[in-house]
Amino acid sequence: MLKRIGSILLLACACVAALPEPAAAQRQTLNFTIGYFTVRGEDARLAGDTLVENHDFLSFDFKDFDGASVGAEWLIPIGDYFEAGAGLGFYRRTVPSVYTNFVNTDGTEIDQELRLRIIPLTATIRVLPLGRSPVQPYLGVGVGLFNWRYSEMGQFVDFSDNNSVFRASYVASGNDVGPVASGGLRFAGDSFSGGGEIRYQRAEGDLDNRFVGTKIDLGGWTYQFTFGFRF
Fold this sequence. Notes:
The chain is mainly beta. It has one domain (2-10, 30-226): Porin (Beta Barrel). Helix content is 11%, strand content 61%. The chain contains 3 helices and 11 strands. The strands form 2 sheets. An 8-stranded antiparallel β-barrel has the order 1-3-4-5-6-7-8-11.
């Protein structure tokens, strides 16, 4: 799958390189982002999502999975009103939890950590309604390949064995494809650009029978600042 996405990006870049001189001569941008990723709430998550299933007997807040994200994106102009982008991002969050209705024999909490990491590789097309003006609102759509890793570490209750407690670590990972959409406002100078953007992603990963849920929902919203170098 990674090779397939890479081939698509290379083909897109080759197509841009073959554009007529007036479009190809416009400035490209190496864009960097710093933002805040918010996961989808309990009522909007996939059926079978393991966080929803865990919430039946673990105490944690879904908002605890909201956290910082960073990224970089290469933007290539296609005429006056469009541009193609290839981007890479990173998000990771660790959330502590405890069993709601069970404690250890000594009265201490039965605790564990839930950790989610997402690395999106995206290919997008943007439309700039005002063209290459100094103030550039834009809308974008595309596809993302989401490399993810989800783990549960700590103490667990064995409900089939008189509620005995044991320590373990369960890890799952994968690469899954889903749509992305974005909208933002950019202020573009000769050498630098800056602005703000809202981005939405939707994808899901499959989990095995070590987890109480069959899915992990990778969707959510990212609110981010952007700054770029134009060349």
